[in-house]
Amino acid sequence: MATGDPDDAPGDHVGTYRPPAAFVEQANVHEGLREAWDEQGAEAWATAADLLSWSTDYDAVLSNPEPPLTWFPGGELNAAYNAIDRYVESGRKNRVAIKWAGRLGETRTLTYQDLYHEVNALASALSELGVGEDDVVTLYLPMVPELTIAMLAAARLGAPHNVVFAGFSPDALAMRMESTESSYLLTCDGYLRQGEAVDQKNRADNARLALDHDVHTVVVDRMGFDVSLGEGEYHYADLVDDHGGETVEPVARASGDELFVLHTSGTTGNPKEVRHTTGGYLAHVAWTTHAVLDIEPEDTLWSSADIGWITGHSYGVYGPLLLGATTLLYEGTPEYNERDRLWELLERNAVDVFYTAPTAISSFRKRDVTVPDRFDLSSLRLLGTVGERISPSGWEWYRSTLGGGDAPIVDTWWQTETGGMMVATLPGVDEMKPGAAGPPLPGISVSVVDRSGDPVEPGERGFLIVDRPWPGMPTSLANGSGWAPDPSSYLVDVDGWAYVTGDRATVDEDGYVTVLGRVDDVVIVRGRRLGTAEIESAAMSVDGVAEAAVVSADGPAGPSLYAFVTPAGQETDELRERITQALEAAVGTSPVPATVVFTTDLPKTRSGKIMRRMLSNITDGDALGDTSALRNPEVVGELKSVLHGE
Ligand code: WTA
């Protein structure tokens, strides 16, 4: 099997593919849908809202064509009711909602009925602790079923959840609780990360010390550690036992009310809050799970992303449960060092649709892995990717190895801010072009524009913008304030309303978008989105570091993060090790795919700004162009020689 070059250029389509006839026949969405939606405009999104149960009907699809706007104004609904109760009521209570696979091979299965019981018991307990509508409940948990249960329990009470990725540091947790004024925290005793036990309770305690306000803390027993509880602390299992059998009325939320907050990396140092609505977000997510992931109620969907990221929220939790399907939660990440786990999990759970990041695919492909004969992956009907550009050859590998040579692949472009998928092929309708995500989904309008906001010619690079409102838009955009990325890095002058995504892209004659990467200081590490500013400040906090700049580039060590460090004193292996540890803590993953490069200086403009673009060009081995803006051009030669031995 040819694995090809992992780095083949975007847009180098190896060919185009039609979805196989057998798939087309059973698909949820058929030919003609795009045309029908185009004719209806925003009204077409009623089809998405109809996948939900509303306690009060909405009056209109969209309040205004321009912000401030509300999707499905007048409508009321509850997320937990939509994800659980309606399936219990409709006689599907014994259908499996969650299949959990633990790190050590443990398994747990929850039917919709089980989920109903546990979510109600926890919601009742939280309500007794004081959680009311609009109180933010923070969840600092690894991939355990209790994380999903807690999200739904909060949603049942109309309390926005605030999930903080379990691998993040106590500081990151404190910052996210402080900014959301959150006084409720669910965490656990500990968990396994890359085979090592992490004392999560201790980390949570450290975060709480940094807060000015009191925090009620609920501790899930994941590891069986002996945790002694202080004032305001409770064992999760005790709460659920004490409140077992109790039910809580799902709180009716207005469509535009907040369902959750999730922090993501922006262009400035601090992560930004992204708040998603109840009606618009859920409609968007339910519809894309139905139309793009092609999920039917009898399906099992495995979305491998951690719930700490938006993909886990939208397609690990809400999407599959809103459709009454089964979601597989795996406590680890499918990577090569656990290679048989991937096949085992797919086979044992008869996964119908697998959704993962290109990083996971490359980790297998680099080693030319084939599926051992003893595994049967024939249950897989559709494959999806998200988070980064997938190379055409990675796409081909995914299809031939996991997809049995003919499963359609959906390459989905979207962001934390968009809530759900925005650009992707409809798997039973559209032709696929490996390497290009696809056309905008029905009801979505995107453009690739130049600095003046004018659409670029097919094949030319430009900035990707969304120029019509969409249901999964966050509250800040709906209210009319955007986040145009840092104007000093580039400026897009768009006429009228638009959301500037921060991505660079091309579009071809057929309207297929290829996303090339970020234009700002956001980097994607192992499919996870981080700000270089956050990582740099971690490196800078290491004793012995004078200055640091981080870029993501494809250098001599392959695609990874490169941290350029000017030491205050000696360049030692010990310093390198401490920097690596700080980077691991910031990224929340170990080992971190980062290379530390010592240098006597960093390339700077005359005004003293570090030129990160130049650092990535040097690392990539690209042409540097004009270096006259540099105050210290001699550093270029030094870096080239350290990196490439030139
Ligand atoms: C990148 C993840 C290429 C992009 C859902 C975007 C992609 C950022 C793709 C958002 C794709 C996401 N092809 N790049 N199919 N999907 N990206 O907020 O740069 O964690 O802006 O949301 O990931 O990352 P976030």
UniProtKB/TrEMBL annotation:
The organism's place on the tree of life at top rank: Archaea
Q: What is its EC number?
A: 6.2.1.1
Molecular function (Gene Ontology), one example: acetate-CoA ligase activity
Q: Where is the AMP-dependent synthetase/ligase domain?
A: 92-469
Residue ranges annotated for the Acetyl-coenzyme A synthetase N-terminal domain, each copy included: 38-83
According to its UniProt record, what is one Pfam family this protein matches? ACAS_N
Which keywords belong to this entry?
ATP-binding, Ligase, Nucleotide-binding
Task: State the InterPro entries in the record.
Answer: ACAS_N, AMP-bd_C, AMP-bd_C_sf, AMP-binding_CS, AMP-dep_synth/lig_dom, ANL_N_sf
Q: Where is the AMP-binding enzyme C-terminal domain?
A: 534-609
Q: Which GO terms describe its biological process?
A: acetyl-CoA biosynthetic process
Q: Which NCBIfam families match?
A: PRK00174.1
Family of the protein in this entry: Belongs to the ATP-dependent AMP-binding enzyme family.
The protein here is known as acetate--CoA ligase
- The record lists the organism as Halanaeroarchaeum sulfurireducens
Organism placement in taxonomy: Archaea, Methanobacteriati, Methanobacteriota, Stenosarchaea group, Halobacteria
